[in-house]
Amino acid sequence: MRAVDIIIKKRDKSELSSEEIVFFIRGFTSGDIPDYQASAFAMAVMINGMSPRETADLTLAMAHSGQTLDLSNIVDIAVDKHSSGGVGDKTSLTVLPTVAACGLPVGKMSGRGLGFSGGTLDKLESIPGYRCDLTTDEFKQQLKEKGIVLTGQSLDLAPADGKMYALRDVTGTVPSMPLIASSIMCKKIAAGAQAILLDVKTGLGAFMQTLPEARELANLMVDIGRHAGRETVALLSDMNQPLGHAVGNALEVVEAIDALHGGGPDDFREHCLHVSAHMLMLGKRAKDLSQGRALAEKAIADGSAFEKFRVLVQAQGGDVSFVEDPGKLPKANLVEVVNAPRSDCISQVHARNVGEAAVRLGAGRARKGDPIDHAVGFVILRKVGEQVEKGQPLFEIHANERAKLEAAREEVLQAFAFSDQPVLPLPLFYE
To answer: Which residues of the chain have pLDDT under 70?
Structure first.
């Protein structure tokens, strides 16, 4: 078998065999197949696509290109959740303790924020002492004893994906559906997931900006999951405006804790309950969505969901007093309330623009390895469909530098659009 023959076959729109895909990914991972041939392969896939079977084979080949985690001797079913990212998306901080409190163990490896999309690990590191670098043995032990883990990726999971993504980034092949879907799913499978819940965002602040694109990606990932023997469900959720009110690391932790106490913004709390219900169904703890939701609501109401969050933070070295009293979390020196410039109905709060403004404020990173300021960010006080009067509070800026605050004020004001006609609120989920 030769790499060039596989490239030519895909170039000519033929379907690759499982053996050819495994051969190519193994050779690329080991270095026997050079970057220029892998780039040609990625471009052929970008132009001609792949069948669901080919995409599933590509995903499994990448999942098995490095270490894999086997959780079958620790939990009866390993359920993983993946969000395709967004602005104000702190759902893992609320959902994971909620479902764990319902008796469904959850061990999740999360990432850091890059670009306008925030990262779960950055939010958790607002809590002094919280460790995001658990070893594999620590991951397994904590999952077995505490029923909840939320850490960074310690294993060399799916190295073929890392190598392939670096090439795609510089060869114009990032927006390929099979390559996007396999990149997401290979890491979930390598991390030991037997059931996977995908929260696929669509809208102005999402990678998939249109509903048809998001639907295509969701269907493809569900197909991959089924081909790989994993029960997989995808939800299409809105990311045209920030989720909840808080955008910024410590601010989002406070909001997630509020939701664990039964408070927080209505849209964020509802989103978390819906995702929790689906996870409890996937994990065989609920027979249907209504039972799953009832279990999640009970865990929040009786305090067991918040207690599970305390257990998580304590187990990973975090100072629990910051969870018990979120007022101790990092605070910005400068807080300014910006008022509405006119009386009208809000027709848009551009999620991506808010996210990018948060990065420039210091809440995110433009390049991998950039330091972040856990205290800064925004609190978006008004949502699409709400009527606002001139002079009423529109949003808050939390900043540590006056010049950055001044710039952020104008940027976020530009993210708001107004209409003199009534505007319907945005749906939380599309399907």
So the answer is: 111-118, 154-155, 366-369
The verdict on whether 321 is a catalytic residue reads no
pTM of the model: 0.91
Task: Tell me, yes or no, whether 310 and 363 share the same domain.
Answer: no
The CA radius of gyration of the chain, in Å to the nearest whole number, is: 22
User: What per-residue confidence (pLDDT) applies to 262?
Assistant: 96
Report the C-alpha gap between 256 and 262 in whole angstroms. 10
How far from each other are the two terminal CA atoms of the chain, in whole angstroms? 43
Catalytic residue check, 168: yes
Q: What is the pLDDT of residues 6-56, one digit of tens each?
A: 999 999 999 999 999 999 999 999 999 999 999 999 999 999 999 999 999
* Residues 384 and 345 grouped into a single domain: yes
Check 161, 223, 258, 267 and give the catalytic one.
Answer: 161
* DSSP states along 25-84: HHHHHHTSS-HHHHHHHHHHHHHH---HHHHHHHHHHHHTTSB----TTT-S--EEEEE-
Whether residue 304 is found in the same domain as residue 337: no
Q: What pLDDT does 1 receive?
A: 92
- The answer to whether 183 is a known catalytic residue is yes
Distance CA 137, CA 131 (A): 14
Neighbour count for residue 431 (Cβ, 10 Å):
11
* Residue 230 resides in a domain: yes
